[in-house]
């Protein structure tokens, strides 16, 4: 497994080299289009399926096996846990920590994300890689309108977009009680990392 990219994160185009936040296997040399389907009428909240545009399963997102609302697991298509997302309880900025595999040990933290400010009209999250302990400048920033499912993820405080999301509505998705959104991940960007950010966004806004 590759270690997170060293801080500070370069705010420059990424077309020439992969940026593996989790692992190089999740970095493609071309844009990756993902379809994220959130089941909104199920007993268990927070369940997602992530597919490619042809419907092939890439990831599954499930609530903790212990039923805790503050934890989500991202599994690969074979059901193996690759990331654990855990909310820090009683924080004003809704901070989440993301760990490698099914661990919640601090040595396995990959990154954390929190609201840029306590009160927000539009969505803004600051994302810090694990070795950015000072957190003076974020490594990534998420901004946009969650209600419209229109968000971009940028490198640091720059305007360099690494991924963007928009809502995809179909008659079938409405009928089946599912919320669909499309995410385009730019070349050489870790798309497992981007999926984790989308799940955190959904959790923070659902809690609101």
TrEMBL record:
It comes from the Eukaryota. Pfam families: LOR. Belongs to the LOR family. This is Protein LURP-one-related 15. It comes from Nyssa sinensis.
